Structure formats: structure tokens, C-alpha cells
Amino acid sequence: MILIVDFGSQTAHLIGRRVRDLGVETKIVLPNDAVSAANQFKPKGVILSGGPSSVYAQQALLIDRQIFNFQIPFLGICYGLQLMAHQLGGRVTPGKKKEYGPTVFRIAAQNKLLKGLNREMRVWMSHFDQAVKVPPGATISGSTPSVEIAAFADESKKQYAIQFHPEVHHTEDGGRILSNFIFDICREKADIKTADIIQMTEEIRKKIGKNKAVCALSGGIDSTVAAYLTYQAIGSNLVCFYVDTGLMRENETNQVIDSFKKHFPFRLKVIRAEEIFLKKLEGIIDPEEKRMIIGETFIRVFEENAKKSGAGFLVQGTIYPDVIESKGTEHAEKIKTHHNVGGLPEKHGFKIIEPLRMLYKDEVRLLAKKMKIPNEFIFRHVFPGPGLAVRIIGEVTRDKLDILRKADAIVVEEIKKAGLYEQIWMAFAVFTGVKSTGVTGDERKYGETIAVRVIESKDTMTADWVKLPYRVLERISERIVAEVFEVVRVVYDITTKPPATMEWE
Ligand code: XMP
């Protein structure tokens, strides 16, 4: 939960409402009760609201400084900023002129709170006093034409302050600021209730109206949940597509189609595009080039088919880590590009619907459970957009794909038999492209090397390799060399992330 300290603001309740809209519980308390409430409720973060007083007035409404000793994030809004400046060692003075209503906020230094926002944005202010010196350790993160310190932050202490009001509707991207604070900085999680599902469906219905929407399904949980929510909102005006890139696992396409048909009522069109993908990948060995080609081809194939349906909206299963990562490192951005059928060309003619934008993967799984989506979808291991292409080192060919598919199916089967499938993040085989010498039936055989990668992770950012029981490893190895003719050697990948990524390419 997030604690809101109300300094007499007109909008403290509105802050509470916005936080609750994000699926997070709040408690609004008066300044005098803040410390005891922090002790009692153990909030994940504190928001200090605006208010009409002056920090330097005789009867100034201050807060027990002890509150800042709680090792939790703080967000000061308006008067909250002034209070933090004043009580944490900066300085506040009366402004030269009152500033009410819209103004332009310009980011001076990026931080987690302002992540993903435009450098310049229209915000709403309502104040007279202003901070003229930030607390020691803090830096100015943004200004307006008349206020130099319109935002400051001390990221090491997770203390953030903004002079404008993110909670009011007119502040551009105010919701993003609050969600950055709550989910990214406080690491709070949205709690999913049936009422939230109804509300999410309602919002989708309002946005799409009587129009048509399309969605690309992969069989993964994110796109499945996004599609199902949308289906509940607009019914058969949703058309789903499954693109068979030819880079899928053993029998995956048939299984996915069968599962969808069995469990979901939405219209599903299958696009068979293996030939197109394999042709485009001919001769390509650079991993990034592979990813780019696959992403681009996917979009073109999907677009061509989706346009024919006359849809104006595109539903995507974007989740919160994708949102963060899309502005993160180069590698993360590429992950996102494929993940969401993203890397959409700038002009694609669709309005985007992203119902899961504020959720983490585990929350999507919770939501799926609440929506009674079968476990085979909920616990399916993550599979990368570029599919087996990033698990084949070097050029992707149909022969290599067939070898890899057989080996991979054995890995997954044995992991399932050992009862470990649902506890781990991913288990898969990699076609290493390394040829090595073997001896089979008294004959020398120069064959393929398959690597087995089994990892556990909570949030994709870091991962550890799973200490599989020897008997499981043994079984996997024995079966691969026995059942996949071309393979003479099996190795186990024992690298953490970092430094290695989960996928080999
Ligand atoms: P890495 O290899 O970056 O992967 O440690 C982290 C997680 O993301 C998945 N992954 C992808 N998913 N499109 C996706 O949809 C991609 O291009 C992609 N690359 C990696 C990977 O399988 C792992 O679970």
C-alpha cells in the first residue's frame, strides 16, 4: 500500500483515487499521524500531498522528520516538494509571482520518476512559494519558465519531488509519473479483483466502441489475456491472428491452435508464413540482423492480413517490464520490439490497446487465473518472439530447425516428467553449430553439439541456472543422442545472467 499524507490539499483524495485506479491500496492520513501510520501499515512508499500553507509560516504544517528515516521511497507533490526541500536541508522562499494553471515543464535530468516522458510537457501548477535550494545530495530534475526547481530528486534515497500536480487530468502523462513511482520505484504490485477485470473490460469497450480490433496471438500468456479481455469487451469484433513463422517448437503451432479452439470463443486466423521467414533468413548469421529481419517480416505479414479485416485497433499484450525496457538498454529495446509485435512502423494506421500495460508477469498470471484461463496457458514457458532462430547459432535452415525441435522436445518432456516445469522459467535446447567427434556403433561420427539451458528467474532481468538432479540431466543427454541421429554431444549451460543472457543470441 501507498501512504498519502494530506497537507490540506484540494487534490489529496484525487491522488488516492489515481493510486487505486492503478490497483494499489492507499491510506490517507494527516501529517501528525504519518509516523504511526508508517509503523502500522508498512507502506511501500509515501506521497506528500499539496496544501495551502507555507513551510516558513509561524504555524507551518510540517511533518515529524523521523518519517524520512523509513527506508522507503517518497514523492512530494506541490507543497510536498516545498516541505521536502525545507525539512531535508534545502530552502524555500515566497515566489515572485503566483503560478496557477498550465505551464510547460522541461526535464533537466532524467530519473526513474520521469522515465518515458517527453522532454517537455504541459503540466498544472498551483503555488506561490518555491524551492530555491535543493537538499544536499538531491539534484534539480526539471524547471518551468518561472520556477527553476520545479522538480528534484535524490535517487540514492529514492526521494522525489515535483512542484506540479500529476494527479490532475490536465497534466500530460501524470498517470505515468504516478505509475513510475508506484510500480518502478516503490516496487508495489497491483492487486487484481473481479471488479478490476470488469473495469478493464469496460475501458476497452469504451475505447473501441463498435469498431473492429485485431490481435496477434503467440500462445503466450500476455497476448492470450489481452485478447480474452478484449473479447469480453467487444465479442466477435475482435479477430485474432496466429503467425506460424516456421520457427516454432515441435508441434507447437498445432497445439496452440487446438488449445485456442478448445478454450476460447474468439475468431482465430492462422497465417502460414514459414516459407517467407526461412527465405528471408537465408545466409544470415548475425544475431541482431536475424532479430531485425524476423521482427520486420512478422509485422509485414501480420499487417497485410490484419488490414484486410478492416480493424481500426490493435490489441497488444504489452506488460510493465516491456514498458520500462522499451526505454532501457539497447538490448532490452530489441526484446520489446519483438515481444509486442512491436517495432511497429510509425505509420501503421491502428490505434493501440494495451490492457496489461501496468502489470508484471506474475500479475498477468494472477489475472489469468481469475479469468479461469487454463493452466496450460498460464504456466507455459516464455518463448522469444524470434523463436528457435535465436537458439540456432549461425544460419537458420530447415534441417537445423528439425534437429533442434527434436532435442528441445526431449528437454521439455523430461523436465515435465521430473515435475519441475512449473517451478522454472525456461528449459530449452540450443543448436550450437559446433561439430564434434563422436563414436557410434564403432564408427567415427562428426556430429552436432546440443546445449541444454534450464534457468530460473523472477523478473527476466537476472537468472540462475537450475541445479537439475543428475538423473534428469542424464536422461536428457541419453535420449537426445539416442533419438536425434545427427547429435553426438550434449552440454549443460551453467552460466548465470548476467553475464550471459538467457537466450544464446
Ligand atoms: P534474454 O535472452 O535477454 O531474455 O536474457 C530474457 C527473456 O526474454 C525472452 N526473449 C524474448 N522474448 N522476443 C520475446 O518475445 C524476443 O526477441 C526475446 N528475446 C528474449 C527470453 O526468452 C527470456 O525469457
Automatic annotation (TrEMBL):
Pfam hit, one: GATase
Keyword rRNA processing: no
Cellular component, GO annotation: cytosol
Molecular function terms from GO: ATP binding; CCA tRNA nucleotidyltransferase activity; GMP synthase activity
Entry keyword ATP-binding: yes
EC assignment: 6.3.5.2
Catalytically driven reaction(s): XMP + L-glutamine + ATP + H2O = GMP + L-glutamate + AMP + diphosphate + 2 H(+)
Residues that coordinate or bind ATP: S218, G219, G220, I221, D222, S223, T224
Record pathway: Purine metabolism; GMP biosynthesis; GMP from XMP (L-Gln route): step 1/1
Top EC category: ligase
Subunit structure: Homodimer.
Its job: Catalyzes the synthesis of GMP from XMP.
The protein, known as: GMP synthase [glutamine-hydrolyzing]
Gene: guaA
